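Continuing the batch. This is chain 6 of the set; chains 1 through 5 are on the previous pages. Same settings as before, nothing changed between runs. Recording input and output for traceability.
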Amino acid sequence: MRELIYLDNAATTWPKPPEVLAYMVEFYKENGVNPGRSGYDRALEAEQMVHRCRTTLCKFFGGGDPDRLIFAYNATDALNQVIQGVLSPGGHAISTNLEHNSVLRPLWHLATERNVEVTYLPFSAQGFIEPDDVKRAIKSNTKLVIVNHGSNVIGTAQPVGEIGRICRERGVFFAIDASQTAGVVDIDMQSMCIDAVCFTGHKSLFGPTGIGGICVGDDAVIKSTRWGGTGVKSIQRTHLEEYPYRLEAGTLNLVGIAGLLKGQEFIAARGGPALIYKHEMELLRKLWEGIKDIDGVQVYAAESLDEHIPVLSMNVEGFEAMNTGTILDVDHDIATRTGLHCAPRVHEQLGTAEIHGTVRFSVGLFNKHEDIDAAIHGVQDIVRMRK
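Output for chain 6:
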């Protein structure tokens, strides 16, 4: 059996670094107790590890108070907390056609059930949101602007700094979905005027599934939308207002947080996001150059790879995306993602919804040049089938 060529890192990075896996197992084996609930040594060590992770991630995102680094189940959970905690009936939100369903569906429910108005901005032919469009869309009742930092379909990285400065000038809460960028693109909340960074742990932060969070700006206000145990002030009937308890309820995912902490150390040992990005984009450029001019191949929103993350979507004329992906898998042992990628508005604007989406290649840190050579060869083979 041939070794799998994994080019689906936008879904989750794989394999995970061995040191991350080893640390998760060892920490949970030795200190897998409930953090913040008791005063014995192992409970204190668990709480100290959680605080180290909060502090490290807060610094990583350019945040302020580490207690405002909130742990969640994943980016979807984090985005729901922000969207539902900022918007109220009669409010207005601005988002984009680049969003994942983790943003689109909460906004849809608020629009249909709680009288929230939503404006969706289209992207350019090159795949970018124009900051001036955001400025023009802001109204007196605009409470939230939420933007996908890096598209999980077409791979474009949005000008969040420019958008953030517009929102800051107008007093509008600005949040980003950093699912595809956290760990591979530098994010500085303060210079980019971002009020909340929503992230997941299992992609370019190299942690496991089931952990994510929000880095909340020092002056940002998000209402609690869930209530329960915190381990402190148990006599109090109402949920705590102070961070991190304000947005956390119940026992934390300790083993996931341990993986996130070790993932941060792994990224630092590899030279930080900039060097990881350089490696991944070098491979993506090789793939792009190898397939973009093949007759019968359409690559979407990639006239250049400026302001791009290592994600590329394409189709072969005459083949549905699912069929192309199946051939790459069965005949070439190449794993890609096909379909609508949980981002239907992107495909509606591209015109690919009618043909059931695209084939997405997403490069990761552990990919090699030989993987890209194989992917180019696989696409060439499928094109030859058309004749």
